[in-house]
Write a structure and sequence with these properties.
alpha/beta, 4-stranded parallel sheet, 7 helices, two-stranded antiparallel ribbon, TIM Barrel
């Protein structure tokens, strides 16, 4: 075997070991980190098992023109679950925060959650994890912790409607 083949084989083996190590570490990280549930709102049916297994509930304040604060029974039920609650967009339109929003727009969502739960959200996750640079500044200027792509990779994140590219049963496996 010539020297080039030996070097190529070692490089290939090193890459495989590196990728396998990353995969195992990511698997363990997702296994040990808290679980999250996206798209929580009265307008989307959400399986009780998903609500129970999640530690963080990402609530849509105004889905299909249905404001969460208008459904006090639902608000009280979500509060009774004793979970961390974050804001998941305002209306959850496709790539809603990929286009620039203003303070008034964000305030409407914050007020909805405050009226529903009795406190302002401390965390924000944009729908489809798309957010413009100006919206990043808007979120951070409102002292909201912004969750983005890395959060989706390092946590098991389920969806109430199971409509994401990756189905909830696959998320359970990995």
């Amino acid at each position: 075997m010539n020297i080039n083949k030996k070097v190529s084989k070692k490089i290939f083996l090193s890459i495989i070991i590196f990728l396998l190590t990353i995969f195992i570490l990511l698997f363990l990280l997702r296994l040990l980190n808290h679980r999250e549930l996206d798209d929580v709102t009265p307008g989307i049916q959400c399986d009780k098992n998903l609500l129970d297994k999640a530690n963080v509930l990402w609530v849509i304040p105004n889905f299909n023109n249905n404001q969460v604060s208008e459904n006090k029974e639902w608000c009280n039920y979500i509060l009774s679950l004793n979970k961390t609650i974050g804001m998941h967009g305002v209306t959850h339109e496709f790539q809603e925060f990929g286009t620039d929003k203003n303070q008034e727009y964000l305030d409407k969502g914050i007020k909805e959650l405050e009226d529903c739960f009795g406190f302002k959200p401390e965390m924000f996750k944009p729908p489809q994890i798309k957010i413009s640079k100006n919206n990043v500044d808007l979120i951070k200027n409102n002292n909201l912790e912004l969750e983005e792509d890395i959060n989706q990779m390092t946590h098991k994140v389920y969806h109430c409607s199971d409509s994401d590219r990756i189905k909830n049963w696959v998320i359970d496996l990995f």
